[in-house]
């Protein structure tokens, strides 16, 4: 079925709008997950400190369970993920276009 160029242009604009909405929602989800991950990291470190304090007589968690490799390291990637989400939004946004006839 033949479609006019105006019809096809309108369909492309609709798809572009849908893609921008989906991309913004994805970026929002990434931002929420990044913040939650950072909060969880903080809570894990607090719990570990409390456990080490409670088990201080036994050498902390590592001493109590005789663990040789007992370093707790959880990278905080919140800033990196938030930057990526910002870039995603920037890429997805297409400014309103106006057509001028001469």
From TrEMBL:
SUPFAM superfamilies named in the record: Virus ectodomain
Q: Which PANTHER family match?
A: ENDOGENOUS RETROVIRUS GROUP 3 MEMBER 1 ENV POLYPROTEIN, VIRAL ENVELOPE PROTEIN
From the Swiss-Prot or TrEMBL record, give the protein name: ENR1 protein
């Amino acid at each position: 079925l033949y479609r006019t160029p105006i019809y096809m242009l309108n369909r492309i604009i609709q798809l572009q709008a849908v893609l921008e909405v989906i991309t913004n929602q994805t970026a929002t989800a990434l931002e929420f997950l990044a913040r939650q991950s950072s909060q969880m990291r903080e809570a894990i470190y607090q719990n570990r400190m409390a456990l080490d304090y409670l088990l201080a007589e036994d050498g902390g968690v590592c001493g109590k369970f005789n663990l040789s490799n007992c370093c707790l390291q959880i990278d905080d990637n919140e800033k990196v993920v938030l930057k990526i989400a910002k870039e995603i939004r920037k890429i997805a946004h297409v400014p309103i276009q106006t057509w001028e006839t001469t």
